Each structure stands twice: as C-alpha cells, then as structure tokens.
C-alpha cells in the first residue's frame, strides 16, 4: 500500500502492481476523522497546524503505511511532515511538479518515480489507457451532473475525488462507475437551485452538501474533483500532468475554472482554505480572476459545520437570492 499526499501520476503505481491510497480520501473516510486530529495533537502537533497534515500523519501511523509519496510543493509544512515520518521509519518518496510547468522537468520527475517503483514504459502506457477509459466515463457523469442537473453533489463529487486513487483497485472502481453512470442517465433532473462552485481545498465539513440542499442550493462544480478526473485530452503522460492545474500557479488554475464556469451557470463561489498567510493572498487573486460573489470558509477541523460558519453560509445564500 503506497500512500500519497496529493495527486500523483497514478499510472506508475498501477503499472508497478502497487496499491495506491490517497491519504486525503483515507482521512475523510475515517469513521471519526476528528479522532485522527486528536491523535496528531497528542503527538505534539500544534492546535492551529494545518488539519490535513495532522490527518495525514495519523492515517499513516494508524494504517501502518510504510511508503508515502510526498508532493513537495503541495502545501506549507509538507517538508516538515516528511521529516517527521522518516523518524517513524516511513519511506518518503518526493515528487515535485515544476513551478514553470516545464515538460522536460516534469518528464524527469515522472521518470524518477517510475524508476523507483520499477514500472516499465510499456506497462505505464497500458495503465494510462486503462485509467483514461475510466476517467472518460467519470467525465460523462460530471457532464450529466453539471449540465443536465442529474444526481446529487455528494453522489457525484465524492466519485470525482475518488478518481485520484481509483479506490485502490481500478477494475472494481470501473464497475462502480459503470453502475453510477447508468443510474444517473435515468435520474430525473434536480429541482431549480442556487448553483455554487467549490474552489480551493477539499471541504472538511461533513454535512456541507446536505446543509446547502436544505437551503435550496447545491455545489455543482468542484475544482478538486474536476481536476482529479483529468478532463483534458493529451497524447502523453507528461502532457496530461502538465495540463493538470492544481499544482501550478493561481493564473493557470483560475483560467481553467473560468472556462468551465463560463459553460456552467454559477451563482457564487465557496472558497475553502486553511488560514495560512499565502492562502489569504490566494483569496485576493481568486476574487480578481473569477468575477463571482465569493464566500471563504476555513478548513479547521473535520465534522459538521459549526454555528458560525452555518450562519455565514446562510447569509451568503440570502445575498445571492436578493441579487445584491
């Protein structure tokens, strides 16, 4: 079982016959994710430390994961987490997306990762073809969801996010995707609702979608889920992960989101982030680049929306309805 902290070239692990585990999904799927936060804090993590780092740490130790691919430029503090994991005899394999999106630099990173796991180029290409067939169906589901208002936010977005590791078994996941696609094709359209886009981090609040539905709103676009499904055509693995926008600069990300939102009727944006200073600047840039009403919510701890954030959300929806 190979854990990873953010999206990596999954094709390499599949080609090498290794079981991939997206640590973000493992954290969120825990019966009580809050306990994982508590375990990390008892181990010495500061209370105000990034909850994702605490979740990764506890998941790795609780599940006995011995190898972890750390995306080094994914989030502040990830290098320190990698050092801490080494103290627990966890093998850390670094992977870096080049800041300039250089094809040559990215090809070198992919080659190093493939060499580490002993994945042959022909096997990687076969894995890529297999995974892209699944992604094609996932993107069909996303299209039904966004453009034809079929399915619920939780139903579709969780499936999109699961594409990062294909739930550890692409064939089993493919069968699940086939069933979900047939189900959505025969579902009636959703009733008219306020339509929201979710930008930034994966939301930690467990009842976000249900709370919005109670208020006559729905998340119909999720940046993280959309990117996980790789909704772009490419003729090579390197080009595929060059087009994947999340690791790169804010202008690359917002340009892709803007093109998507131009084709998806959207009333407003929910921006999820930690409280890192760099993400406060990110908020300012996103507001400038995406000209939609925006509400920022902090990922502080997994669990249900607290009263303060629920009131903020309800106020935001009231503002959207009033058109102010």
UniProtKB/TrEMBL annotation:
<dbReference type="InterPro" id="IPR010327">
    <property type="entry name" value="FldB/FldC_alpha/beta"/>
</dbReference>
<dbReference type="Pfam" id="PF06050">
    <property type="entry name" value="HGD-D"/>
</dbReference>
<protein>
    <recommendedName>
        <fullName>Benzoyl-CoA reductase/2-hydroxyglutaryl-CoA dehydratase subunit, BcrC/BadD/HgdB</fullName>
    </recommendedName>
</protein>
<comment type="similarity">
    <text>Belongs to the FldB/FldC dehydratase alpha/beta subunit family.</text>
</comment>
